[in-house]
Write a structure and sequence with these properties.
This protein is mainly alpha-helical. The chain contains 14 helices and two strands. It has a two-stranded antiparallel ribbon.
């Protein structure tokens, strides 16, 4: 009886300690989520009372809205292209910057700064870079006699431009990879050198397995982030030209705040939630085959 009273007291103390978080989660997260789920079954323009329409919004989205299909296509192409490129580039950069040489901290800071710049400022910089006539990138390509490219004004090049721009922010993943690389025991590399392993063999058989959990984290966060591209497309292209950069969240924003179709926008949001959840679950289920956790104990 005495032990149970102690446990009840500990449980009560625990709930008291987390009560601010619970209140915030229920009021600011769970409550709005449930409200948006209800609104997704209504027709609501914010100014009038919501009108319940059942599954009409979802039916229109899947069968009558070509912009939804285009937005999902653009976002999927971007996610499945930019995420692998970002993973490889950030890992390669982290390996290069994981050297004990003079001035390395300065180089790490230089490569990390783009990841923390304001998105709007970054978008304005890239507008100047991608300018078709007199732009920085076309000026550089002109040195090698490459004809001018329309970039953001050309439907064929608009989405590749955003994919190219995504490499600018690999510094965020680089920092996480650096933390993982510096956690790899040096004894493993020393033992491999004694056995005559080459640098590539050490990287493939030691580095990659030991930082697989870090790769897993960056992969999940990269997928989630790639499905939520908004600021750059909103500032730079507004979804054009010819819907070539109509990212999903931008389309959701247009429906909600430009056309005041709040019920329709909530339905779009829940579809996006399910899509991201499916991708995340696929990665989680596959992780047991390639992610190594050092603290695992095999029985």
């Amino acid at each position: 009886m005495k032990l149970s009273k102690i446990r009840r007291r500990e449980a009560l103390d625990g709930f008291i300690c987390i009560s601010p978080w619970l209140f915030g989660f229920i009021v600011l997260t769970l409550g709005p989520m449930l409200f948006s789920l209800y609104i997704s079954f209504t027709e609501w323009d914010i100014l009038t009372t919501p009108k319940f329409v059942g599954l009409a919004n979802y039916k229109t989205i899947f069968f009558d809205d070509f912009r939804f299909a285009q937005a999902m296509k653009v976002t999927l192409i971007y996610a499945l292209t930019s995420v692998p490129i970002g993973l490889v580039c950030s890992l390669a950069l982290a390996v290069l910057l994981n050297q004990n040489v003079f001035g390395m901290r300065t180089f790490r800071s230089i490569f990390y700064i783009p990841a923390i710049l304001p998105p709007v400022a970054m978008a304005m910089v890239w507008l100047a870079i991608f300018k078709p006539h007199g732009g920085i990138l076309n000026a550089i390509l002109g040195i090698f006699k490459v004809p001018e490219i329309g970039w953001l004004q050309d439907p064929a090049w608009a989405l590749p431009s955003f994919i190219l721009m995504s490499v600018w922010g690999v510094g965020g993943g680089m920092i996480i990879y650096l933390a993982g690389l510096q956690g790899v025991p040096t004894q493993l590399y020393e033992a491999a050198e004694i056995d005559g392993a080459s640098p590539w063999q050490k990287f493939r058989n030691i580095t990659l397995p030991m930082i697989s959990s870090t790769i897993f984290f960056n992969l999940v966060m990269g997928i989630i982030g790639s499905f939520q591209v908004f600021t750059s497309s909103f500032v730079m292209t507004q979804g054009g030209p010819a819907y070539a950069t109509l990212f999903y969240v931008l389309y959701l924003y247009q429906k909600a705040f430009m056309f005041l179709q709040m019920g329709y926008a909530c339905a779009l949001a829940w579809i996006l939630f399910i899509v991201i959840l499916i991708f995340t679950l696929i990665i989680l289920m596959s992780s047991s085959a390639w992610v190594y956790y050092e603290a695992e104990v095999k029985k």
